[in-house]
Write a structure and sequence with these properties.
By secondary structure, this protein is an alpha/beta fold. The protein has one domain: Rossmann fold. 43% of the residues lie in helices and 13% in strands. The protein is built from eight helices and seven strands. A four-stranded parallel β-sheet has the order 4-3-2-5. A three-stranded antiparallel β-sheet has the order 1-7-6, with no helix packed on it. β3, α3 and β4 form a beta-alpha-beta unit. α2 runs parallel beside α3, α2 packs parallel to α7 and α6 runs antiparallel to α7. The structure holds three DNA strands. This is XPG N-terminal domain-containing protein. Keywords: Hydrolase, Magnesium, Metal-binding, Nuclease, Nucleus. One of its GO terms (molecular function) is metal ion binding.
DNA sequence: CCTCTGGCCTGAGACGTG
DNA sequence: ACACGTCC
DNA sequence: ACTTCAGGCCAGAG
């Protein structure tokens, strides 16, 4: 499919403190697909896959370390056109989805459970843009699609935005959803990932430490961020 | 002679270690 | 730099 | 809408 939107490439540094929505299937797509193809599948002791948990933990860590605040968008996979369909020939099971929600809760990362909530977040400028497939852009109500997200903690410096004029979803003006990014719940993370899912505790704690350091960085620059936002709003007028 | 852009094609993870 | 093994 | 995304390569334009 040909891109209808206008593409802009920006340095990741420009997104510091930015809140963005991420289609959960978009976040999972590549990683789950390629890893599950391999012989060395990642599983817990019962043989249940754990690739989805590793992806979301590592990916979220990477985003936070790059200064981006994610909110994950959950929805019925059949509700929209085949999101990332080539990768997602496999349907992510509801068990895995619920495990991811549990993980996000312990991580202190917000998520919403429907496309309409995503639309509200965009309408109220609670989030800047959404990472999803181009097919879903209109129904999500996203004028800005995000690409090349830094799910890894290193190497990436550039991120792509695709701007669109049209959306097909509209939210009620009065509705508002408040998002909160909390401190990770270390105890429950260890219980869940290490005791139940056989993650290496040392590695996990290192990861949690990096997430906490990122959150401190956010707090330190709150004032700067506030100023930046004000400036942006002025420019729009 | 360049630099840049766009179209076409292709392959598909992240990270640490040696 | 590159190739390879691990991650769970 | 109905096989995606992103990066590399190369031809053609400016």
């Amino acid at each position: 499919m040909k891109t209808v939107g206008v593409t802009k490439i920006k340095n990741i540094k420009n997104y510091f403190g930015e809140k963005i929505g991420i289609d959960i299937y978009y976040a999972l797509s590549k990683f789950v697909y390629t890893l599950d193809e391999k012989e060395t599948k990642l599983t817990d002791n019962d043989g249940n896959p754990t690739t989805h948990l590793k992806r979301i933990f590592d990916g979220t860590k990477g985003l936070l370390m790059n200064g981006i605040k994610p909110v994950y968008i959950f929805y019925e996979q059949s509700k929209v056109f085949s999101t990332c369909s080539a990768y997602n020939s496999q349907i992510i099971s509801s068990v895995e989805i619920n495990e991811i929600k549990r993980l996000l809760t312990y991580l202190g990362i917000p998520f919403v459970n429907s496309i309409s909530e995503c639309t509200i977040l965009l309408k109220t400028k609670e989030i800047y843009g959404v990472a999803t497939s181009e097919e879903n852009q209109k129904s999500f109500g996203a004028k800005i699609l995000l690409r090349d997200l830094p799910f890894q903690e290193k190497t990436k410096t550039l991120m792509t935005e695709v701007h669109f004029n049209e959306v097909s979803s509209f939210a009620d003006k009065d509705q508002k959803i408040e998002l909160k990014w909390r401190q990770p719940d270390e105890e429950n993370l260890i219980k869940f990932l290490c005791n139940e899912k056989q993650f290496n505790e040392e590695n996990l704690c290192k990861g949690i430490k990096k997430i906490k350091e990122s959150l401190i960085k956010f707090r330190q620059t709150t004032l700067h961020q506030y100023f930046k936002k004000g400036k942006k709003q002025q420019m729009k007028k």
